[in-house]
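>> Question from a student workshop board

For tomorrow's exercise we were told to take the sequence and the ligand below, predict the bound structure, and bring the output to class. My setup keeps failing. Could a helper post the expected result so I can at least see what it should look like? The ligand is adenosine-5'-triphosphate.
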Amino acid sequence: MLEIRGLTAAVDGKPILHGIDLAVPTGEVHAIMGPNGSGKSTLSYVLAGRDGYEVTGGSATFDGEDLLAMAPEARAAAGLFLAFQYPVELPGVGNANFLRTALNALRRARGEAELDAVQFLKLARVEAKRLSMPDDMLKRNVNVGFSGGEKKRNEVLQMAILRPRLAILDETDSGLDIDALRIVADGVNALRSPQSSALVITHYQRLLDHIVPDRVHVLAGGRIVRSGGPELARVLEEGGYASVVADAA
Amino acid sequence: MSHAADPLAPVHAVTQTPYKWGFTTDIEMDMAPKGLNPDIIRLISARKNEPEWLLDWRLKAFALWQAMTAPEWAHLHHPPIDYQDLHYYAAPRKQAGPARLEDVDPELLATYEKLGIPLKERAILAGVEPAEGERAPVAVDAVFDSVSVATTFRATLAKAGVIFCPISEAVREHPELVRKYLGSVVPQGDNFYAALNSAVFTDGSFVYVPPGVRCPMELSTYFRINARNTGQFERTLIIADAGSYVSYLEGCTAPQRDENQLHAAVVELIALDDAQIKYSTVQNWYPGDAEGRGGIYNFVTKRGACRGARSKISWTQVETGSAITWKYPSCILAGDESVGEFYSVAVTTNRQQADTGTKMIHIGRNTRSTIVSKGISAGRSDNTYRGLVRIMPKAAGARNHTQCDSLLIGDRCGAHTVPYIESRNPTAKVEHEATTSKIAEDQLFYCRQRGLSEEDAVNLIVNGFCKEVLKELPMEFAVEAQKLLAVSLEGSVG
Ligand SMILES: Nc1ncnc2c1ncn2[C@@H]1O[C@H](COP(=O)(O)OP(=O)(O)OP(=O)(O)O)[C@@H](O)[C@H]1O
Ligand SMILES: [Mg+2]
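>> Workshop helper replied:
Here is what the output should look like for this input. Compare the format with yours to find the bug.
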């Protein structure tokens, strides 16, 4: 599904990614771990097409299509979703209105009929309930005044409603309490299917207890320095990054 | 797609606002010769069969105007206006004053049809709500250049005792009301543009709502400037008698022309005890092209007097048009416990300049005012909020809350906030909050990541920014205003 080859990227002229090779086959969940500042968020922004994140070499394809040539909204329409490490506030924009606009934009792009406000609200309420989120989250303005944990849950709600084929979760587990962590993991697991994949960026083994990944990659200094099965996360938890990073150097 | 190093690159692109109301109407006009002098004023007065007192009133205004100079304090730049190079009267020839709808020139009806203004009264059944998707009936007074060409639903309104007619007609039919209130809020010598208007005003709407009456429908006036080199000087006078309520809407457009056109209106509102006036404007005059050629110069004096106790006047405006806007809808809160409100969205793009705001003059005890101003600037435009809150010595317990937010799209536009606060009563409380923000790159990216196009993302963010103001507009107008915002900002990013 996602194939990244020799990807290098710079931010403000400063090289951050130094050659990423990574393949996430359809139906698999991969985890990316790595020290602060190693380039995890940069990779997710590059994949989602954020302006200012300049690709300087390599390639990334999504279902064989050149992902890097597409506008951000076209990537979203193709099925890519990014749960932001720092979700953005949109003052005055109602959460439900925002989500319906987004869902309908995606449906339009896919040639599906748009949902009216009533149909949408029905769907949104079901998903909110599944994630144990109070209905009034839908009425509030997008992320405005949300606690850190609420923002993360709101990202998962959006993911549940937009049903991406490739979800990239950038530290969605950070700042969540134990119950919320479970809910977020359930949300990701609910989307797990032979047709969809996920790339889960995290610092903690505990999330991977709930979302058991097919592969774990370690990103350090803008490169993937180690890849392995779920057990790699446990090794990291015990020995810290020093063991694997030093290993790879 | 290029990953330019500048994350704000998409907002640098030049604005290209397509103005959809720029067509002209080809119609035979009765025009006064260019120029302004007592003879022209006599001609206007004669054309309108005015009584002697009104001609004298105009001539006095003219004398005052001659001794005045245009204000220069506003944050606006334009070449000097040659007041002798304008026509002060232009009327469609076939039309001698407003008549029955059937008598209106079909060319004119077609014009308003094209503008989406309903001049045909649809049959309305008493007590029947309009079906979904259908417009609720609105009574319309259509002013074309210097004259009112049609006023709809007059019979329905008359049944409720509401007078809604062109002011030229009110001068003849209801002289006692006009004489009592005309100029009582905005005197002839109030300011340069008000004096000019008082001397040469040609038409506009008149509304009187009798005591205790809730006006049964929204009233609206639709202004259209068509003729070349013509100034439009309309005069609106609205009186809400004790315990009455009226909601009034004003809309305007003008053809696309290379030269600038002058619009200098005066609006006077009077609310007596417990009366409420809600005045909403969606101003969409031709703003000029991307280079700043053409467009309307909009110099307007709007003022409401809350004369009665517990009366309330509420101004809501969405300003997207005009090359230059100079406009400060104000409230004089004389009655005890009276309330003034000002909700404004002002959008400037390309080379547009807007200097707008409000004045709240607190005279009575426990008077309250609320100001919410949202300025949006794009392109190379300049947007200034100028607000005065004055608390007079007797206004014990007066309260004002002002919130003034500016949103910048791109980095070649400007936003300025100029609050003046004068409090002469120690028990008064005045609060002022101001913010300036940009449509942040991360907001746009967040929306686009969810699948929204850049334009949809900007619209969503802009509408969110204006929400507090848009919700004050009557439902149908709010929808129109949202569309207008979208059209105005089309192409300002991406
Ligand atoms: N605009 C920028 N200018 C310069 N350096 C930047 C910029 N944005 C990011 N960086 C740098 O790029 C590196 C990678 O940042 P990134 O956010 O991708 O790290 P991360 O792996 O997600 O870290 P964390 O675990 O803390 O979230 C960091 O050293 C960061 O300081
Ligand atoms: Mg990060």
